């Protein structure tokens, strides 16, 4: 019998104290369903501390990454208000284990979205699209983990930052994306890397959350997935993601 | 003694040029050229390319433009160089969007998605700048460059690729001209697919920060070497993402945001 509560406490404490831990799977054998139960329980601990749920994130949305990981589906994680960085804000690396940042596209929902839904229905639930970045920070040593481990660890999600919102009918299929550190490009890509079209990620988000009995809620932010490889953060760096036609989103890391 | 050395080097360059030419003609590959040249002798490599350019023009090949290679910073770093290179585009290399390309017509083919610029005016003169380039550009097109290498197994360094006409093969141009006013060439997203699978992803900034930067470098270089770009010339500005392998019968489609799409179709 897997002790969900105990494992949830372990990953939550690691995230809360920014201390790395060995992979859960080294000590306990657990299934993917167990992993999502651990994730849900660990996020519940955050909510019990007063955090508010405000969205979800998609992971492994690049086909190359899925194949590389030997997977046939995406993973997802839960977002809270405490994970949100203000656009233009500053973070301290003290609150992270070994954070990396990736450029993304975010959706804001104006109404709940259940599944099955078409891409058109999904878009009809969208209030806006925005350039975004996610800080992923596996709580596991050396960023190494099994599929179950990363799911239990909230899909490595740690923080996110969202830029200016644009109309939901904005074409986001193939937008150039440039992520810069101190004004120099470190990752170059296109929103097409997100499942060929980020709206597909939104439909998948509706499916995965519906399967978990949650669905997507009005007011939530859906982070559609990384458009490039992640880049390790370092002290004193100014990070900006510019997206063709959507403007940019930025944050700084303290020295 | 000096004269004798020069003669020996000239012969080496001529022999290397013939080796490339023969491989190109027969659709074969040859050993790397760099082994017969002094280390890092870029001038010698261009001398090899120039011999073949002169011969091919004499044989009736029509020059329709230039290509710029090594425009990605990571590729430059990998080859240990801090500049791009150029090659000649001939009329027989131009393929119409969607027309079938004989798979055997390019040795070891790979595909790159690029921005092509077409000139309305000559770019001749001292100290050309971005302003001259913008003023001289008629329009931009989405393009696929089918690169190839006459060097066995793509075992190339900067000298090999320069000598081999910058590893050129075919070019496929899109058919809807776009004015520079109407496209952001730095931010434009690029995705290239093969049978619906993404094989390359990038953006305009990957080409020397902006495809126009690469074109300015080329315009200046062409004046330096006495072959200035002319009205009507096409400039293949350089890859917007990693190059992708191609197999027989495959269809590559590149889409560049703001420029449209273009297809390279290969025979079995």
Give a structural overview.
The complex is a heterodimer of chains A (255) and B (268). Chain A has a single domain, classed as Fumarylacetoacetate hydrolase, domain 2. Chain A is 25% helix and 30% strand. Chain A contains 6 helices and 13 strands. In chain A, strands 1, 2, 3, 5, 6, 7, 10 and 11 form an 8-stranded mixed β-sheet that branches. In chain A, 47% of the residues are buried. Chain B has 268 residues and is an alpha+beta fold. Chain B has 6 helices and 13 strands. Chain B has helices spanning 2-26, 42-58, 73-79, 130-136, 158-163, 211-224, and strands spanning 63-69, 85-90, 94-96, 100-101, 110-119, 137-147, 170-173, 189-194, 197-203, 234-239, 244-245, 251-256, 260-266. In chain B, helix 1 packs across helix 2 (42-58). The termini of chain B are far apart. The chains are: A alpha+beta (255), B alpha+beta (268). At the A-B interface, strand 8 and strand 9 of A face strand 8 and strand 9 of B.
What distinguishing features does this structure have?
heterodimer; A: 255 residues; alpha+beta; Fumarylacetoacetate hydrolase, domain 2; eight-stranded mixed β-sheet; five-stranded mixed β-sheet; 6 helices; 30% strand; B: 268 residues; 28% helix; 29% strand
CATH C-level of chain A: Alpha Beta
Tell me the CATH architecture of chain B.
Alpha-Beta Complex
Radius of gyration of chain B: 18 Å
Strand proportion of chain A:
25-35%
Shape of chain A: globular
The tally of strands of chain B reads 13
For the report, how would you describe the main beta sheet of chain A?
A: 8 strands, mixed
Q: Provide the CATH topology of chain A.
A: Fumarylacetoacetate hydrolase, domain 2
CATH homologous superfamily grouping of chain A? Fumarylacetoacetase-like, C-terminal domain
The number of helices of chain A is: 6
Outline of the structure:
Chain A has 6 helices and 13 strands. With 255 residues, chain A is an alpha+beta fold.
